[in-house]
Amino acid sequence: MNSVPRNGSRKLLASAAIGTLALSMAACGGEGSGDGDTVVIGYTGPLSGGGAAYGENVQIGLEMAVDDLNADGVEVDGSPITLELKSLDDKYAPSTAASNAQRLADQDDAPVVVSPNAGAIKAIQQINDGRSNFLISAYTSDPAIVQSGNPLTMMIPPNFESYAAEFTETAMKHGGKKLALLGTQSEYGQQWTKSITDAWKDAGGKIGGDNSIDYATVSDFAGPVSKALAEKPDAIFVGGPSQPTALIMEEARKQGFEGSFLVMDQAKLDEMATVTKLDNLKNSVGVLPVSEYEDPGTADFLEKYADKAGDKKVPTSETALNYQGIAIIAKAMEVSGATDDPAKIREAISDALPKVDDKYKVNGFPEEITEQGHLLNPNLEATYLNGDGDYTKVPIDQVSDDK
Predict the structure, then answer these.
(1) Where are the extended beta strands (E) located within 97-222?
(2) Strand locations in 314-380, DSSP E?
(3) Are 71 and 30 in contact (CB under 8 A)?
């Protein structure tokens, strides 16, 4: 596999309405020792509706981590514990996510609740440091999550703003300087659109009109794609869930587009290759597939994933990073000697990171957690999928999470 030299460096770094209870609930835990206490890991995410595939990817990672940790044995303050995953469906609705999180904390005594949606996390942050007290394991790349100052938040993925400059440079190198915008209309998608627009302009490029569309409701992409291509772009910014993103890129190729794609981090190139032909995805810059990582536990993780999910399903960073995240939290429980004190668990994460077993290091394992609560892997990489269908690693300089 090739590598692209690193170019330059940058500084590394409300109140939500409580809605209806989730309609579906799932519980999964590995076989524990049968001794000691059971500690619930809560999860609220989209398990039905348009975001179900995304929510399932997260849930699989959590299930795999709980199973492996229970098999290995977790011991807190001299006593064995058994981890149990309890999942609630929020259908991507922030108010429902907040209700779910409060239920998991208050009724199930979950010291940790996982959420994979920026809007939901922002709603949950209004309630997790008061009467209800729990740590949020936050799967979102929106830096606003740690800019909020919430003391009980652990942000897992890289800040998405880190990608903009390198994505721009790579796309311009393999295309040209006029960019069309076909991102998703969600709040997160519009943040990405602004970030990539600013980076593109800073690099001397030209921007066409904003043709963002609602990836969740629009199924016929021919019209929006045609409108974007009428501007004769050299590159197109796309991104939302993998499935509709793949169909948009497919439609652009059908209409004769031969330029490059900049793909926001929510969509995964290898997952999109299960929806459309790889030829439609070539000449794209996006996040590095899990299968391209070379961490100590990556190979075994991929094998276990295939056993659990089947050969036709692709392991995404939603699965792998949440797998790592639960391993970090379990080790922080061991280091802190606490399972029912979220503040102690959060405080122990820094000391816990170097003690996590190599088997749980599968997708750019973090080496530190910032004071704001963001896990950082100093060797962040994205990828360029070239014309031959090969992935080339692209090093990414991470930007600060400060406002």
Answers:
(1) 112-115, 135-138, 153-155, 178-183, 206-210
(2) 368-369, 375-376
(3) yes
Task: Name the pTM for this structure.
Answer: 0.89
Asked whether 214 and 187 are in contact (CB, 8 A), the reply is no
Q: Per-residue pLDDT for 3 more than 80? A: no
CB atoms < 10 A from the CB of 269, how many? 27
Structure tokens at 401: 């999470």
Round to the nearest angstrom and report the end-to-end CA distance of the chain. Answer: 36
Reply yes or no on whether the pLDDT at 78 is more than 80: yes
User: How open is the CA angle 303-270-93, to the nearest 5 degrees?
Assistant: 95
* Single-letter code of the amino acid located at 344: K
Distance CA 100, CA 381 (A): 34
Rounded Cα distance, 252 and 254, in Å: 5
Report the C-alpha gap between 168 and 355 in whole angstroms: 37
Q: What angle do CA 278, 283, 289 make, to 5 degrees?
A: 65
Query: Helices 317-336 and 342-352, interaxial angle, to 10°?
Result: 100
- Residue 150 near residue 172 (C-beta atoms within 8 A): no
The torsion angle over the Cα atoms of residues 162, 163, 166 and 172, rounded to 10 degrees, is: -140
The tens digit of pLDDT for each residue in 47-72 reads 998 788 889 999 999 999 999 999 99
pLDDT tens digits, 23-36:
333 444 443 334 57
- The H or E element containing residue 11 is none
What is the CATH code for 25-159+295-376?
A: 3.40.50.2300
CATH of 175-282, one of 3.40.30.10, 3.30.300.30, 3.40.50.2300, 3.40.190.10: 3.40.50.2300
Three-state secondary structure of 233-244: CCEEEEECCHHH
Task: Give the domain ranges of the chain.
Answer: 25-159+295-376, 175-282
Strand partners of residue 182: 238
